[in-house]
Each structure stands twice: as C-alpha cells, then as structure tokens.
Amino acid sequence: MKRKIAALCLLISLLCGAAVWMQAKADSPAAYTAEDIFGRSEQAILYIRILREDDSVKATGTGVILSPDGLAATAYHVVKEASRIEGTLRDGSVVGPIEVVAVDEQTDAAVLQLPALKSGPAGGYAFLPIRETAVNFGEQVFAIGYPMANTPVITEGIVNNPKAEVNGRDRVLTSAQIASGMSGGPIIDRFGRVAGIISGSLRTMNNIHLVIPLKEVRSLLPVVKTP
After folding, report:
1. Where is the signal peptide (predicted)?
2. Domain C-terminal end among 95, 113, 131
3. Distance from C-alpha of 5 to C-alpha of 97, rounded to nearest angstrom
4. Is residue 129, in this structure, part of any structural domain at all?
5. Is residue 146 domain-shared with residue 90, that is, in the same domain?
C-alpha cells in the first residue's frame, strides 16, 4: 500500500512539473531566426542622410523607428551638428525633414521625430517594440544597418558583455559585426525587440563592437511605452 501511495505521489509530482513547464513555455515569446528578424524589422529601419545646404550628403547612418507616430532612435554622433536630416525607408520613400528632439552626448543616444506620413498604412509608421530588461552574457542578438547607400545588412552575434565601462560610459559589447554606416541602427534580440543602439567598435579588440544600452535610450523616451 505504501508503494502505491509513493508511486501515486510521484506521478502527481511529475504531472504538476509538466504542467508548470508547459505553462512557462506557453508564456514565453516566440524566438525568431535571422531571416524572420530581418523580415519583421526591415520596414522600421531608417537610412539616415545628413545634408549640406547644397543638398550634398555630409554623412550617413542608421536609425530605428520606435513608435507609429515616428519617434526614432539613433546615435548622437550620427546627427551631431546636423542642419538637415532626411531618411529613406525600405520601400524607397524619403521622409524629412527629421527633427532631433532629445540627445545625450555622454551616452551617444539621440531621439528623432519623423514627419507625419502623407500616405501609407493608416496605423502610421512600422516600428519595433523596445525591450524592458537588460541583455545577458551570451545572449543571441542581431544588428541591422546601412553600411552601403540604401543597402541594409543584418549580422548575428552574441552579447560578449552586457555592461562594460568604456571611456567612462556603460556599453554593451557584442560580436555582431558592425560596419561604418550602421551606427545608430538597432541591436535586436531573438524575440524581435530593440535591445540597444549601435555606437561603434572597440579598437583594442577585433570583432567586438559597442552598443548603447537601451536604458540610456529609454530615458529619452518618456512617451514611448514598452510592450
């Protein structure tokens, strides 16, 4: 009789454990492949051009749209001292002028406001959700940006360090490959959420690149609610 009771207790324990595991799995967001990440993100990635008075291009970079009304994030050094900013969406449409609404020179974060859409989806701009929590050691991430005019690329890597002090600033370190022109673009986690903004590369280490922690960007975005 004792053996039967013990076996019954074990069975109940296993069933309860399985139920908890299945519920946890059901509550976890879906993880995406690199192909999925690019497909879900490309419309929200902005090719940024800094223009001179004669309309020639002074500098280029990348930005990411974070809300349907056109709030976007980029790196401060991309738009520093810019007199006129235009952006090109993935479908080729040009938006501008773009306004710089908030910057933090120390952290290299900047927030932009795109003009209201004159045409397109009634819901406004395509955008990416922003992540609430910090990234972790070894976490898979993706970088998307424009190292070539109107030609986006996606790279894949891991978080080498979620909080490293570099020149007096907290930085996320990642092995996702970064090239010139990708500054200001997003680092995206495997669930499709913006997890940081590309800032540059670490010259003392090959293939280690610098990312602005999302908390620094979020501090400039009081009106953006994280999902």
Report:
1. 1-18
2. 113
3. 74
4. no
5. no
Alpha carbon distance 143, 161 (integer Å): 16
- 183 vs 224, more confident: 183
What's the mean pLDDT in 3-16?
51
Amino acid, res. 102: A
**Cβ–Cβ contacts within 10 Å for residue 100, how many?**
15
- Please write the tens of the pLDDT for every residue from 13-70: 545 454 434 444 445 678 899 999 999 999 999 999 999 888 888 999 999 999 999 9
Indicate if 161 and 214 belong to the same structural domain. Answer: yes
The span from the CA of 70 to the CA of 178, in Å, is 25
Range of the domain at 156: 140-218
The answer, yes or no, to whether residue 132 has pLDDT greater than 60, is yes
Residue 23 lies in a domain: no
Residues 6+ apart with CB under 8 A from 80: 105
